[in-house]
Amino acid sequence: MRAGAGRTVSTDHGRKRRLRRDLLEMRRALPAGVVAATGEALARRTLELDELAGPVPTGAGAPPTVAAYVSIGGEPSTRALLDRLRAAGVRVLLPVLLADNDLDWARYEGAERLVRAGRGLLEPDGPRLGPQAVTEADVVLLPGLAVDRGGLRLGRGGGSYDRVLARLERAGARASLVVLLYDDEVLAEVPAEPHDRRVHAAVTPSAVHRFTAPGGRTER
Question: Residue 157, CB half-sphere, CA atoms under 13 Å: how many?
C-alpha cells in the first residue's frame, strides 16, 4: 500500500458515515404522504427503462427477471412498482436477509404473501431460491441513499448489497444495476472506498439518469 492510502480510505469512510447520517435524517423528516406519492412516480419512471419497456416474451421465451426489494421507512416506496412489474408478467425476486447479512431470494407473489422479518423488513413467504438466484436477473433494483454523476452508489453501510454486486461480478452477469432514489439524492460526488461499485442508472421520480452501459452495450 502506498504511503497515505490508508488515511485516504479512512477519511472517505468518515465522510460516507456523515453523509449517510444527513441523508437518513432528511428521509426521516418526509411525511408519509410524500413517500407514497413518490412511489407512484417512481414506478412510472422505472417502467420507462429500456430494459423493461418492451413487451414481455410469450410462448417459449422466458419473461424478464427483476431483482427488487420492499421499501421500508423513508425509502422511496417500491410497493406500486412491485405490483406493476408482477402485473406485467415480470418475474420479480425479493431479498431474504440471512444471519450473516448476505441475501437469499424468493419470488414476489403479491403483497399478501409478504411476512414481517427482522430489522423491520418484509420478505416473501415462498420457497428460497438461494443467494445465486440474483445472477439470473436482467435488472437489479438497488436501495441506496445517493448516487453521484459517475454512477457511484452510496448504500446504507450494511454490506448486504456489496455482496450481491460482488456475486454478480464473479458470475459475469450482464444485469442492469439501477438504484432508486429521490430527486435530490443525485449528487455531484459521493465518497468512495475500494469495494464500492458503480451502477448503470438511477431512477428518481422525475428522471432516469444513465451512467454506464452493462455488458459493454452502447446507450442511446
Answer: 13
